[in-house]
Hints:
By secondary structure, the chain is mainly alpha-helical. Helix content is about 65%, strand content about 5%. It has helices spanning about 10-15, 25-45, 55-65, 65-80, 100-125, 125-140, 150-170, 175-180, 185-190, 200-215, 215-235, and strands at about 55, 85, 90-95. Strands 1-3-2 form a 3-stranded antiparallel sheet. The longest helix has 25 residues, at about 100-125. The radius of gyration is 20 Å and the shape is globular.
Amino acid sequence: MPAHDPSVSDDVAGAGSGAGGPSAAPVRQVLSDSVYENIKAMVMDHGIAPGARVGIEALARTLNVSPTPVREALARLESDGLVVKRSLSGYRATELLTRQGVEELFEMRLLLEPRAAALAARHADDAQLDAVEAILEDMQVHPGPAGPYAAYRDFAALDQRFHDAVAGAAHRPLLADAVERLHSHLHIFRLSSLQSEGAPTLAEHERVVRAILRRRPERAAEAMADHLTRSLERQLGRFPET
C-alpha cells in the first residue's frame, strides 16, 4: 500500500466540513485502513519482530499520525491473531508458528474444510458458485508468494477469500465462522514466502471448484483434503528435518 501522506492525520480527518460532517467518516476510514495495512506489513515482513513489543507512540511517530488510528489498527490486528495485548505490557507481535503449530493448524483445517467443500457442492446457490469462480479467476492474475508482503498481499487475501467463500457456500454458519477464525493464511504467509506456492495452489483450487460446480460432494471433499495435505507438505518443507 502507498505510504501514508504525512500531511494527513486523524485530527485533520475530523475537520473539513466540521466534526461529523459528510466527508469526515470516509476520510477517517481511509486513514484507519492505511495505518492498519502499514502495521500489518511490518508484522508480516518481520519489520516488527515476532514476540517484540509494539509501541503505540513509536508507530505513531513512524507513520506520522496520532496514536488513535494506531490503537484502532492494533485492535484489528489482535482480532487477526497477529498481535496480542497483555496487561501492563501493552501489545506484542505474536510468535511464529512452530512446526507443531503448523501441523495442528492443518489438522483443524482438514477436519473442517473438506466437509465445508462437500456441503458447498450440495447447497451453494448460483451467486455463491459465481463468487467462488470469480475469486479463482482473480487469483490467476495476481503474483503468488514472493518477496515482501506488499508483493503478494492480493494473492494472500484472495486465497483466504477463496476458502472463506467455499465455507460460506456450505450454508453452515458455525462451520464458516470456524474456518474464518483460524486466520490460517496470515499465520502461514508470515512464516516466509515460497516462490513455488502460487501455481500448485491455483491448480488445487481449480479441482475443488470443478467438483463443487458439478455438484459432486465426495469429490469436492477429496479435492479439498488433497489441497490441504499438499499445502501442509509445502509448509513443513520450511522447517529443518527433526
